[in-house]
Design a protein that fits this description.
There is one protein chain. The chain is of the alpha/beta class. It contains twelve helices and ten strands. Helices cover about 45% and strands about 20% of the residues. Helix 10 crosses helix 12. The chain is globular.
């Protein structure tokens, strides 16, 4: 398996350069295109709040301010894009309706790269992250310090739909990994599953993986993060939002715990 297009949403902020750098690391081993996509705040999103009919001075000023901010953000994103030392790259500045255009770009990308802030609900791309992961159900990589495409990769698997989908979609990265470790915590779930089945699936595709059973009881995220540190993985592959999103939001959930951690980088799929 391989990737042909890696998408990097940009906000015209300080973190754009780091996201582009991570996208290059993910795309480079496959000679894939890095698609830098600037996603500004959409003027159309505030129109319902301004009322219909005549636009007064306050409303007009608000719209013009938003447009100026978008122009400034695009210029900053373009500067980060131009400074990115990678030959196979493209730049797209989205226009209104921004969210529809963003969805279209994500649907035609093999992987979407984010930094830590959007994944933790911070910054201008926080809503973008939620849309890409939960609504569009595209695979995303949250690139944190130390991310490399060829390091040790841990795969969290419980036999469920989300975890299995992530395990399949991450195959291109696993083929480049120096070591792959399957993490299974059978006592942390009521689901019955056999990690050897995933091991065999990978072996049939040329990926040799080890199995580590996490025998302790406890919260799944804590067990996984401890195992990741123990095996020296710089990337964890996991399913995202295995429970209804409202339930995850209220009660936490494994996904939220992984997003709140400082390390490792995460490959997530819903």
């Amino acid at each position: 398996m391989s990737w042909a297009r890696v998408m990097a949403p940009l906000a015209g902020a300080e973190g754009d350069a780091a996201v582009l750098s991570a996208a290059v690391k993910a795309a480079g081993p496959f000679d894939a295109e890095v698609s830098a996509v600037f996603a500004p705040a959409d003027v159309a999103d505030i129109m319902p709040w301004l009322g219909e009919g005549y636009l007064g001075g306050i409303q007009t000023t608000a719209i013009e301010t938003l447009r100026q901010a978008a122009a400034t953000g695009e210029a900053r994103s373009r500067a980060a894009y131009e400074a990115c030392d990678y030959a196979k790259k493209t730049f797209v500045a989205l226009q209104s309706p921004v969210w529809a255009a963003l969805s279209a770009e994500a649907r035609l990308s093999d992987l979407v790269i984010f930094g830590d802030d959007p994944a933790r609900g911070r910054g201008p791309l926080a809503e973008c992250f939620q849309q890409i992961v939960a609504d569009e159900q595209r695979p995303v990589l949250i690139a944190r310090k130390g991310f490399e495409a060829g390091g040790v990769v841990a795969v969290a698997w419980d036999g469920g739909k989300e975890a299995s989908r992530a395990a399949r979609l991450a195959l291109p990265l696993l083929e480049k990994a120096s070591r792959v470790v399957l993490l299974a915590a059978p006592r942390a779930t009521s689901r019955h599953f056999d990690p050897a089945r995933l091991q065999a699936y990978y072996a049939a595709r040329g990926v040799q993986a080890e199995i580590e059973i996490l025998g302790d009881k406890g919260e799944a995220a804590s067990l996984l993060l401890g195992a990741v540190k123990r095996v020296g993985a710089n990337l964890l592959v996991a399913g995202a939002f295995g429970h209804p999103r409202l339930q995850e939001f209220i009660f936490g959930g494994t996904t939220r715990s992984l997003l709140a951690a400082e390390a490792p980088s995460l490959f997530l799929s819903h």
